[in-house]
Amino acid sequence: TKRAQVMAREIADRNTAALAARQESKTEIGLIEREEAVRAAVIIDLDSRIIAPANKANQYFTVGPEANFTVLAKNLFLKGREAGVYGKVDSVTVAAVEPIKILNPQLGRNEVVALAVVAIDTTLANPGAGEMSLVYSYTLVLTGLIAILIFYILYRVTLKPLEVMNERIDQ
Known about the structure:
Blueprint: H1 2-20, E1 38-45, E2 50-52, H2 65-78, E3 85-88, E4 93-104, E5 109-121, H3 122-125, H4 129-170
Antiparallel strand pairs: 1-2, 1-5, 3-4, 4-5
């Protein structure tokens, strides 16, 4: 959930200026939508219309469990919640929704104009058993090599000078 939250906050921070200037065409997601295990990374307005990425612009974000989660988060923001919402959407998906706020001069305060939504498939984000066993075996082999190197250095520094001194004493 932390990864999704950081990505959503990044999208919100990056696009606040463009939305404040009413330039929806300048909003962008960046490379976040291409990250591993990301199911959805979008900016939507309060009517669930997608603002960014450009290839999905003007479509409605209404399909999937993350869309339902986004509607619940939107209602919380409209009631006055300040911080982002994140959590488990279903058994394999976590989502984070961050508000994009701009100053409303009539009200004299920041109000939510859009939402940054990121959904991550946790089955793809976590390493599998084969990948973990490879990491463990690599670590075990590397630890063994380092141990052999340390024992060799200790032998050369301590035991070898004592053997040389013993031979000289014997002579």
